[in-house]
Design a protein that fits this description.
Number of helices: 3
Strand content: 35-45%
Helix content: 25-40%
Largest sheet: 7 strands, antiparallel
């Protein structure tokens, strides 16, 4: 985990290792889930939230890349954006999770607020490069 320059929420990365077939299947299932369910709600110790999601274009970074963004409308009036990039390299799935939490926003401001990977693209590319190098060792 590390902090981005413009947010309080930390960025986080994960490496998940599977057989290549299982990793390919997991990416397919994630893509299908995002295509099937673009709205859901949940409640936890912090309150209730309604979430919408959208799949985004992503640069070619490995054998398979998927990027999606979610918007959580929090019960107490704030918002939480999450931007996730998942990259499969062979049997390894590397993810980068960028989150931005805000207080209440006017509808006009909400319509224009979109967290983007920005400098995190370099971190994602380096993570994929490290996985690729490790698989070749």
């Amino acid at each position: 985990m590390y902090r981005g320059k413009s947010t309080l929420a930390p960025r986080s990365t994960n490496l998940l290792s599977y057989s290549e077939e299982a990793a390919r299947t997991r990416m397919t299932l994630l893509r299908e889930a995002l295509g099937t369910c673009d709205r859901f709600s949940f409640s936890n110790a912090f309150g209730k939230a309604a979430v919408t999601s959208e799949v985004l274009d992503a640069p070619y970074l490995g054998d398979d890349t998927l990027r999606y963004r979610t918007l959580s409308r929090l019960d107490e009036g704030g918002f939480a954006w999450k931007l996730v990039t998942a990259v499969r390299v062979g049997g390894v799935i590397a993810t980068m999770d960028v989150q931005e939490v805000t207080g209440p926003l006017s509808p006009e401001k909400l319509a224009t607020f979109r967290p983007e990977p920005g400098p995190d693209e370099e971190v994602i590319a380096r993570l994929v490069e490290n996985v690729t190098d490790a698989q070749g060792a």
